Amino acid sequence: MKKGIFTKILYLVAILLLATQDIFADVSNPPQTIPVPPTQEAASVKSIFCDEYTDITSIKGFSGRGSATATVKSVMGNDMIYFDQGLGGWSFVELGTTLNLDDCEALCFDIYVVKTGFTLKVYFGQGASVTIPTPLVEGWNKIEIKLDDYRNLPAGKIPDLTQISKIGFINGGGYDRTVYIDNIYAYGDLGGDNPSVDPNAPTVAAPTPKHKDTDVKSIFSDAYDNITNLILNNPGSPAAEMAVVTPFEGDNMLRFNSLNWALVKFDPTLNLDGMDYLHFDVWAESTRTIKLGLGNWSSQANTDALTLNAGWTSFDIPMSVFKSADLTNIIVSKIFSSNGFAITRLYFDNIYTYKGDPVGTPIIYIEPAPEPILAPKTVKSVFTDKYNNIANLEEGGTVGLTDFDLVYRLTEADKVLRICSLEEMTLHTTATLDFSDMENIHFSMYCDGEGGSGTLEIGFQAQGSETAYYSSLFSVLKTDEWNYVNIPVHELKEAGLDCSKIDKILFRGSGNIYIDNIFAFKGEYAMGLGEEGTISVDWNLASADDVLPDKEKAYLGVNLAQGSGGTVHGVFNTNYSYPTFKDLHYFKSKGVRLIRFPFRWERVQHEVNGPLDMELDMKKIKEVIAEAERIGMYVMLDMHDYCRRNVDGVTCKISDSGKLTKEHLADVWEKIAVECQMYKNIWGYDIMNEPYGLDKGVWYSTAQAVIDAIRTVDMQTPIVIEGESYASSSTWPSTGGGLIGLNDPANNLIFQAHCYFDKDKSGHYNLGDFDKEVSDPQQHIKRLQPFVEWLKEHNQRGILGEFGVPGNDVRWLNLLDEVIAYLKENRVAATYWVAGGWSSNDKVSIHPLKNYTVERAQMRIFEKYTKDYDNTSSGTGCILHNESGDLEIYSDVTADHVYVKADKAMKSIALFTMSGQCIKKESIGSSEARIVTDGLVPGVYLIRILIENGSVRNFKFVKY
Fold first, then answer.
1. What backbone torsions phi and psi does residue 725 show, to the nearest 5 degrees?
2. What is the DSSP letter of 615?
3. Where is the Glycoside hydrolase family domain (predicted)?
4. What is the pLDDT, as a whole number, of residue 398?
5. pLDDT value for 13
6. What is the pLDDT of residues 870-910, one digit of tens each?
């Protein structure tokens, strides 16, 4: 390190010096120049070994490889760290004091390489190393390491940047080198600016806490003394950023950017046993949903989804929610977006636990009521968070011990009616309710069991009438779960109620009752998530040995995608996983016989052309394949990498020339085929997921190279080829059609397309509303047809490898019904995206919740098709799904008619598409009718029959 004040002058003079000068006489192969001095502003620098700035530490010594001869040498009057034949193993510079670099953006240094260059890795004394992506060259190299490269490492490998005691260097090639190091310093603040100055921060402070100090254990709050520190232990994927910002003097907030999920570590750990509530305030730019968990490395418990409003939202979570975690040893908190997509920006404040009750508004914590999924135009809502309410409710009187109030389930965004010690009570509506054109009135009901068994009768009273009409449906409520009832409107009409001007709702019964989701609707009822109750799986039967069915048949399966995402390589069971045996058993119980199994190239082969990882990833993959074979399920292996992977620290895409080529992909697939060819249940090798953005002709030649390589070791297993442009089905003739020319010596190719049904075809369904996403009632079929028709034209086997819909609107479920029926009719195999235990936050997930006890709404449609998917009639008539026991229905295949006979006279018949479009409506006036189906496009249709007494019957049929 150079002394004195003439840095820049000496730098210019040094350039002119020759290697023969006496100044180098005592140094072996020394630098002939000094490095360019750093130019960072001193105010933003923490200097370790650099005379341009004031050092904040000293060099205590050296350790590791070459430490015996390592020293500080003077070169041209400039002190430099000198390692003579070091770096073949880790060579460490030991610091005189421990440094905190957590508020810095980058670590910089200059390194001089004697003779041949090499690849350098740097180490901070704990965690994993960071590889310098550009190999060092002979002479001076200026290095700048973004400290985010450390913060984004998997859990367990993230160094504590607040405790830097040494810095290590190593030659990635593993042999000794001689180097000189100078100008070691860190600069800047995290993110390139001062995190305490944030232009996006809230403009108003969070509510001031009101709990007594003596009742509080504070985690992050300026109102109390905090008992721990917060450390970002794992930023998740994509990597979240955490920083403390101070938008107001003395008011610190905890900011998260790009939060999908993150693990925050408590140091020291927390003992929260005996505390009653966890409080925190969260600021969001717009409505969002998150979940929060507490626990340690062996056990953790999470909240349900918490709704954030724009601005500040306050939460008081009963600690009983986290009872499955060890509250005496809380090490981490997991914070994550509940829909699976990163939230741009969140701010937290006043995170603390306390004894006693919440202050102010009554807040309860029970399971959320199942979200209604009926189409808004079929609903008149009185009390829901889903739809626009047409009236408000007010207390109209109670009898006996009955106590009524409006409470919040965690936040003011989720209101619930609570009736304690129910005997009788009345609710007034602020506007009369006209339900005369509706068919049923829905109520969701919950009994907590604390007030005894729950029973409930529901009545209605019309404006100006003295008579209340109670439904004949008397509910005995299950405890600690949501129940529901649909009261037929025609029953109330027949009893004498004027359903056009209801202004009172009455309850009588017993117990502590919570009520939510009061609305009237017309048409067939579709249950919300979990309303069918707890599902039961015969696990012994689902896990029993079974034979593989006919491989040539078309199957309806699922993607078990735990291995498709996360940091690469990542840590197994932290950043990614693979399907569990229980996953396989559950879907086998639902009739699924085909699994698409995504995995990542870099995890099974760490270096291109290198060996497969038989110790972990290939071992785990083969275990899943073997279990699937045992229980009679096929597996399609899917390399889920979009024709991209990391090579030498740089993300590369496959090209004719470059670091990643078709030969590399052919090499890994030949090795995978060697490992998997002995299994009888490999349905196909899906050689690459969704190729896109490649140079012209590259994907075709790459696919051919992979086919050729696999066929050198396996002539039996089908090879699955996806089209370009993300395997889009809607553009298949242009982006996949040319693949017909591929040559497979085994003549056993299967072509794969993907299709989603939101506006931008991404599968993200970001608009959040069916009406915004779907503009054409036939757009789903139109997107599928180019691929399906191409398969038929060229007599090829095909599979729709990815498709999926949200489960929060019955119209999506109806659309899903039409999609599967269309694929079934055309004998195209399909695998639904997505399933697997790590997909629970995805909008389109079909994976069950709560340890396989709560069914997804999509499964109600899916399960209808799995067991006989490849058993479709080739006729042109209709297959009927009669859901009304008092109707006789049959079809005339030759005449394209459907005949209906009812017990009572039918008033009218209407024909709808499953997306809700009315195609025709006819008046009947008799107990028999004929429906002409000639001319209808293939798909699923709904026929709605209005009986003369006002009741409605619905049935579906499939038109081929």
1. 55, 50
2. T
3. 579-836
4. 95
5. 37
6. 864 433 344 454 545 577 777 665 557 788 888 888 888 88
Tell me how far apart the alpha carbons of residues 57 and 1 are, in angstroms, rounded to a whole number: 14
Q: Are 599 and 842 in contact (CB under 8 A)?
A: no
According to DSSP, the residues that pair with 892 across neighbouring strands are: 897
Residue listed under structure tokens 């003439």: 6
- How far apart CA 819 and CA 447 sit, in angstroms, is 39
H or E element at residue 46: strand 45-49
Spacing of C-alpha 838 from chain mean position: 7
- Chain centroid, CA 442 distance in Å: 31
**Rounded to 5 degrees, what angle do the CA atoms 435, 436, 441 make?**
40
Q: Which phi and psi angles does 947 have, rounded to 5°?
A: -80, 155
pTM: 0.67
pLDDT at residue 99, as a whole number: 79
pLDDT at 197: 54
CA–CA distances in Å: residue 19 to residues 34, 36, 116 = 13, 18, 18
Instruction: Give, for 817, the enclosing helix (H) or strand (E).
Output: helix 810-825
pLDDT at 1: 44
pLDDT at 868 (0 to 100): 87
In our burial notation (b when 16+ CB lie closer than 10 A, e otherwise), range 703-734 reads: bbbbbebbbebbeebbbbbbbbbbbbbbbbee
Query: What local confidence, expressed as pLDDT, does residue 299 receive?
Result: 80
Pick the closest to residue 507 from 444, 424, 430, 399 (CA basis).
424
Q: Quick one: pLDDT at residue 114?
A: 85
Instruction: Classify strands 749-754 and 719-722 as parallel, antiparallel or unpaired.
Output: parallel
DSSP assignments along 726-773, one per residue: HHBSTTHHHHTGGGGG---TT--EEEEEE---STTSSS--TT--HHHH
What are the residues whose beta carbons fall under 8 Å from the beta carbon of 467, sequence distance 6 or more?
A: 461, 496
Q: How far apart are CA 143 and CA 106, in angstroms?
A: 10
Neighbouring C-beta atoms of residue 744, cutoff 10 Å: 17
Parallel/antiparallel/unpaired status of strands 594-599 and 482-488 = unpaired
User: Which stretches of the chain drop beneath a pLDDT of 70?
Assistant: 1-28, 125-129, 151-158, 189-198, 237-238, 339-340, 360-363, 410-413, 871-885, 891-895, 914-916, 937-939, 960
For residues 702 and 712, give the distance between their C-alpha atoms in angstroms, rounded to a whole number: 16
User: Which residue, among 178, 104, 173, 170, has the nearest Cα to 138 in the 3D structure?
Assistant: 178
Using DSSP's 3-state secondary structure scheme, residue 319 falls into helix
Q: Hey, what are 917's tokens?
A: 């479009």
CA 185 – CA 144 distance, rounded (Å):
10
Question: What is each CA distance from 185 to 109, 159, 371, 398, 443, in whole angstroms?
Answer: 7, 18, 55, 73, 66
Provide the pLDDT for residue 339: 67
pLDDT digits (tens, 9 = 90+) for 27-53: 457 888 888 888 887 777 888 998 777
Question: For residue 22, what pLDDT is reported?
Answer: 34
Strand partners, 74: 79
d(CA 633, CA 683): 9
Q: List domains and CATH numbers for the chain.
A: 7-192 (2.60.120.430), 213-360 (2.60.120.430), 376-521 (2.60.120.260), 556-615+635-644+676-692+709-866 (3.20.20.80), 878-959 (2.60.40.3080)
Residue 144: how many CB atoms within 10 A of its CB? 11
Q: What is the pLDDT of residue 459?
A: 98
Q: Which residue is associated with the tokens 């017990």?
A: 903
How much of the chain is in helix, strand and coil states, percent to nearest 5?
15, 40, 45
Burial status of residue 642 (CB atoms within 10 A of its CB: 0-12, 13-18, 19 or more) = middle
Q: What is the pLDDT of residue 877?
A: 45
Residue 160: predicted pLDDT: 72
Contact, 945 vs 439, CB < 8 A?
no
